[in-house]
Amino acid sequence: MSDNEHEHDYDSEYEHDPTECVIKTPDELVAEHEAELNDLIAEVEEPEEIEDEQVRLSLAGLDLGRRDFMKAGAAVGAASAMAGCSFGAQSGDGGGQSPSGNGGAAAQHSVAPGEHDEYYGFWSGGHSGEVRIVGIPSMRELMRIPMFQSEGARGFGHDDETAEILDEAGGVNWGDCHHPILSESGGDYDGRYLWINDKANGRMGRVNLKYFETDAITDIPNMQACHGCAVQSPDTSYVYGVGEFRIPIPNDGTQDAEDPENYWSVFAALNPETMDVEWEVRVSGNLDNADSSKDGKWAFATGYNKEEGFEIEPMTRDDRDYLKAFDIEAIEAAIEAGEAEEVNGVPVLDGRIDSNLNSGADPIVHYIPVPKSPHGCDVEPTGKYVTASGKLSPTVSIIQIDQIKEVDDPADAVVGQPKVGLGPLHTTFDNRGQAYTTLFIDSQVAKWDIEAAVEAEAGSTEPVLGKVDVHYNPGHLQAAEAETTEPAGDWLVSLNKLSKDRFLPVGPIHPDNDQLIHIGEDMQNETGGMELVADEPVYPEPHDCVIAHRDKISPNVVWDREDYEDEKEYVTEANSRVDRVDDSTVNVFTSSKRSEFGLRDFTVQEGDEVTLTVTNIEGSRDIIHGVAIPEHGINLAVAPQDTREVTFTADSPGVYWVYCTYFCSALHLEMRSRMFVEPS
Amino acid sequence: MQWPTIDDFREVRRALPVLAAALFLGALLLPMWVINVHVVQYPDEVLHLQLYAYPYIAGDYVEMAGLNKYIGFYYPDPVYWTPNFEVHENAIKVPEWSLGPLAFIAVAATGLFVAVAPTMEKLKRGLKWQLIGTVTVFSVMLIDIQYRLYQAGHSLDPNAPVIGVEGFTPPIWGKYEVANITSYSRLGLGAYVTMLSIGLLVVAFYYRDSSVEFGDLPGRLRRWFDRFGQDASPEEYEAEPPLTSNPER
After folding, report:
1. ipTM score of the complex?
2. Which of A19, A366, A618, B242 could make an S-S bridge to A640, C-beta 3.0–4.6 Å?
3. What is the residue range of B180's domain?
4. Does position A28 have pLDDT exceeding 70, yes or no?
């Protein structure tokens, strides 16, 4: 269930200034002064950089970004003509300085040391159960956010609060996450939250992007495998999760397991703030991937088991499956009208194909037939069409959203069906009306024109503008900002399932290979201008990612103690102490800073239940202090201004060295305290 | 009725059918047809298939079956023979594959039968008809195989998972592409041995009227080459003394 710890008033989210809470030590003051001096010296010594900036600005005045200029130059082979300019090779790589980030040639993806990437990429960690942050275009992995299992480096699941998140979400210490989705405001990423599904346990987890930390996990009732997920565009009123595996309800052994009628697959809508499941809709067949229309009136999900089979042959038998279109207003009206049945604490509507709610003039779920076993379900940026990628059919079906309610035969809402290649799995978009589809079997990415595909005959290959080989067997792909109404159209990542021979062998379990493809230039060539520029080995197995411009993501780099002041004490050096609650309960409070704990030692009795509360009183970013207690399994990671609690039983008398795990200072090794456990 | 003596088998026209018969039988132990398969997802390896004259496939046949099942392309069902590979219920039926060894055994047996012909007349007749018969058998076999390949490539299982793959005809020799798979078919060693055997039958037929023996063949060969050389480079020939030829019996 949800954990409200880090929920905040929306408007105040970004306004936090990390310097507010900085408490400067003499060391820091000296360091800061030195840094200022260095900056001054740097400015004096490096006039080239200033020149570089001026050139860029003058180009900007021509309504032509430096990057665009370089790209255009490269495209006509005129790059050498600019060799004499100051934005040549020696400074062109420092593109991180310019707002547009990647300077240099079209497919220049390297980011110079010390420079920043232009985009945040949020990666699913697959069955590692985590979320990863990857810089685009460098493809450097920046951080990992553990979600469905405890993890040592960040201490997730080791302190009481995060352990409780895991416990209350079912206590399954593992997850299989596939589809990271970002909260939106006005159809654009707003940098508040990220959600991701847990296919293995029918859950939805949330990352608070103020702290890049998992703050809630919901175990969705009536769902064994939550696969696809999506936020409701444009303002994230709901977070959707879809049930892929059909399961008997109730799943307690009382149902006839051979009767498909007893099996359910539900579409769930969660409240993004409370993380409560607001309603569910039971469907015919099953559900796979999901997306929202840009106006939020529709949600879509593909499915591959219209046959409601239990085994692979019946699942793939028929040549048609359905794209389900959920009419959100109709669903809300039906809930309002009391049409729902409460099942395991959630109101559930019957949205099966022949249900009463679907029989009237205003069905809650429209079943649109598309070639069998469609997989990806993606709404293009203008919101006019939703695509269903064929998987077992070589086509992508294009459904015109405003036709769904107009047509008598649902099949007539399918207005285009280009033949893109074998095994189309997922589709993403640029800002120029073009779509990109992974071809799993062909190991390619196909680029195609959306309107041309609508105009062409079904099954036509004419709309395909080019294909680029990827290595190997791509699943998802995602272009920068592609879920917004204004994709960036410059970078695309193909998340390939297999890497085979692409990297040094590291034993039989291979990394996946996520490949960066530049899509900023449309060209009349074999690839349509797509250019493969980087391989990135990734720990198994990311499925999907989402890429947001760095301007839209602004995490705190130190904690704001006000965010937890009602729940945990901010322990100062002066207030470090041992409070005995009763004969067997003791609370220990200590601060931590370079290079000492507030308590140089503390004493508890054998058998005590000890709650240790540690505050990192540093104000400077990245001065993290860990708290480890040998032989007790205690491992906290406490960031500046953060406070963490952990409860344990001191059941063995003796002396235990409490030490810092993050190398924090020259006296890091000396940063220790002693825990005395006295025999009872 | 007069059986040929051992000495008679020094003659090419009697010995070669025997040798050919042995080679026909030996060919059964060798692959007739090999397919080398290049698949994108197998970047550092080529998958190999070796097909035999009887229902047996060696090499990466399990891996290939795993790839082929997605498009519903199956190894043929030999009906009368339990092959080493798994037979899919929707595979095309090619019962004549089970008879493949019989064809080889039959031409081998005919060769032996002809070789021991009691009279020169019968031997000559035998050599002629055996050659005609053998060529006919293998021609029919080739035509049948190509037809069956066409049939297999155009009988993709409609219940296969992946739809949208067009029918195709794998060639007996050549390159073909299906889905993301590129294959090169070539003849196997067994096929070359078979061709050699037929060649021996041709030589035997060529010398049907002659008692030329194995020992004579090098000289014959040299003379033949020299004649060929004469055509090709007469000035070189003039520099050499003319060769005497062995008298025919």
Report:
1. 0.79
2. A618
3. 6-206
4. no
